[in-house]
Amino acid sequence: MTSASSTSASGALPERAGRHCHNALNPFHSAHYFAPELPAEMGALGVEGRAVYFSSRSAPLGAVGAGTVAATFYSFRYELIARYVPEVWTVTTPQAVLDARLRAVDATLRRLLGDEALESPEMAEAAKLALRAAEAGARHARPLYSAHADLPVPDAPHLAYWHATTLLREHRGDGHLVALLDAELDPVEALVTHSATGRGMSRRGNLATRGWSEEDWAAAQERLRGRGLLGAEGELTEAGVQLRKDLERTTDRLDRAPYVRLGAEGVARLTELAAAFTAKVVEAGAFPAELFGEG
Prior knowledge:
Elements: H1 17-30, H2 37-43, H3 51-58, H4 66-73, H5 78-82, H6 94-113, H7 115-118, H8 121-134, H9 143-149, H10 157-182, H11 187-196, H12 203-210, H13 214-226, H14 238-254, H15 256-283
């Protein structure tokens, strides 16, 4: 891997370039999960509450059961998923959910960014670059990426860009699960260590959305302390910090193909465009602060 300050004439990637690009892309994909437009569209199908998220994200896999969702989503308690899946598929179909999700994404982005941004040359450029990167993803052992890759690319540039950000998000996510398994972190331990970095969702946010209890969280902390990864106050030890660094490096390595396809200049330009659009989405209030703050 090259250093952060150097690239070759052939366009070799700087260190962590793919990670930085992903970090700029991912909020554009995920904003719709926090938007009122998604539950409104899904409510018209008879889908409500937590079933909205589980069905909208897993719909590309087909009418799967709770076990498949737990395996591919990883950080959610199985029993929480099983309250809604597969029962949701007796109410509606995966295709109806996919159609509703795309309508919700369109409405969300129009509200957050406005038509001028969505119809801009920059949006069309971002879509072209992101789709080119996403096409280089590996399907094998990547169920969510592979299932989304079977979906048609929307015609509108902003929806094509959103589709590509979704592919890139799930490609990295599928690889990250491999890294978590290799590090022997179970779902709660993964959440605890990520939260302890200060970059992940807060404990309160994780417990509110993932279905785990305070007791589950405390037990995971004790297991991590037993491995020397977590300190008395819930902070990462030196070994814990190193583990999280190793996890991200492994994830970077497994996620290189899309960004290698673009080369250094292409990744830098996509990161620039993605960061600008994401900044606008965040400034428009797309994400609830209480999920990412202290506690």
